[in-house]
Amino acid sequence: MTSNTSLIILSGLVIFSYLFDIMAGKTKIPSVILLMLLGIIIKQVLTYFGLTTYNFGTLLPTLGTLGLILIVFEGALELKYSKDKNQVIKKSFLSALVTLFVSSFLITWIISYISGQDYYRCFINAIPFCVVSSAVAIPSSSNISKEKREFIVYESSFSDILTVILFNFMINNRHISVLSFTNLGIELSSILLVSICSCLLLLYLIGRLNHHIKSFLIISLLILVYSIGQVFRLSSLVIVLALGLFLNNANQIKFPFFKKYFIYPKLGSDIKQLFHISAESAFLLRTFFFIIFGLTMDVSQLQNWPVLLSGGAILVAIYVVRVLYIKLVNKTDLMPELVLIPRGLISILLYYSLPPDLKIKGIETGLLFVVILGTSVVMSLGLFFSKTQVAVSNNDVTDVV
After folding, report:
1. Which of 115, 241, 260, 400 lies at a 20 to 30 A Cα distance from 276?
2. In 28-85, alpha helices (H)
3. What is the per-residue pLDDT across 217-273, written as a single tens digit (0 to 9) for each?
4. Residue 390 region, left (φ>0) first, then alpha (ψ -120 to 50), else beta?
């Protein structure tokens, strides 16, 4: 394959992704589903013509991690903090925490029933199915009310972070003891300290850099800090979320010392530019990640009824937990929060992070795809019909007036 052919293919895939994003806004079908289907179609075409391809599976963890960092960072850069938002932050954190634990125990039971494996292995394999994907939820919430969108952004980001913390904790502690929780406390304290230092350092650098290229430097430093944290098995997504929130709300800090050394006149325009570059980069990485995931997936697994039935059982568990939480704890309307709990990028990343000796036969990419597809279809239909109902009610009000 020549370099020109490669460039034509790569640019064509980006154009397709852009068109899928436009379609997603009109049809409510998440673009990530269309990207995965495109990857599956490409694989079938290559197989039909007997063409060999590169082992793209080795790229997935790296692409997914970069995409996750930028998506969470982009979402955090959109959020402005004020005291009246304490309530939505508390609600979203509690929702992410309770839903994660209840879903994980319920799905653990389902996987144990299916596989007959011990509860530890089943619990580890259940975790990827329990996380709300911010990579799908944040873009899909763009057309709902501002208050509900803030809840979804916070909840999906907290869900990513809490799930990664739980996943790392379970991987590192096959036998849980008091020392396990002591180490967890040390880890969380370390994350907090690193977050504070990183936020101050990066804001100081932004204000002192005179070079016209600074956004990609900041993003590179953020990725560096994240990766170093991951080497030490810290849940570095906390740092990403904290940095985004800190940069977008730094001008609200009133300490004279802080304002003197960290706040500068062009801060607002620099943050705006950083946001746009993060969004563009996240779009690009998300495009290739989900296409490659479709390329690497074994679609023959989707012909197995046990996989479809297992996926259906997991989907039922996910939505039962969501309905009960909204009605019993939040005590609000079901829509659109009920459907905005898609699975996606972070689920795939956690699955590929499972140690080989802990993976369970039958709990594979086919089952993961069924759950991702199922939650995306439910989200698409839910957003479409909720929008239709809002439009009808608005027409009724207009008729009355």
Report:
1. 260
2. 31-48, 60-77
3. 888 888 888 888 777 766 677 778 788 888 778 777 777 877 777 777 777 787 888
4. alpha
- Report the C-alpha gap between 226 and 229 in whole angstroms: 5
* Bond prior to 30 in cis (omega within 30° of 0): no
Q: Using one digit for the tens of pLDDT, what is the confidence trace for 68-123?
A: 788 778 777 777 777 777 888 888 888 888 888 999 999 999 888 888 888 888 89
Q: Which residues contact 63 (CB under 8 A, 6 or more apart)?
A: 285, 288, 289, 292
Amino acid at 377: V
Tokens of 141: 């919430």
d(CA 15, CA 88): 37
d(CA 44, CA 241): 39
> 35-63 pLDDT, tens per residue?
888 888 888 887 777 776 666 667 777 88
Q: How far apart are CA 276 and CA 289, in angstroms?
A: 20
Place of tokens 């993060």: 278
In angstroms, the CA 374 to CA 310 distance is 12
What's the length of the chain?
A: 401
CA-based nearest residue to 158, from 226, 240, 78, 249: 240
* CA distance readout (Å), 249 to 98, 202, 334, 401: 28, 14, 31, 41
Q: How far apart are CA 96 and CA 160, in angstroms?
A: 9
The CA–CA distances, whole Å, from 181 to 88, 187, 188, 215, 292 equal 28, 10, 10, 38, 37
Alpha-carbon distance of 311 to 65, in angstroms, equals: 25
DSSP-assigned letter for residue 327: I
Question: Of 170, 173, 183, 179, whose CA–CA distance to 108 is shortest?
Answer: 170
Cα(279)–Cα(76) distance, rounded to whole angstroms? 11
| Residue indicated by tokens 């982009």 | 74
The alpha carbon of 68 is separated from its chain's Cα centroid by a whole number of angstroms, namely: 6
Q: Which residue has tokens 């997603």?
A: 24
Predicted confidence at residue 395, as pLDDT, reads 42
Sign of CA dihedral 133, 139, 145, 147: positive
Specify the amino acid at residue 13.
L
pTM above 0.85, yes or no: no
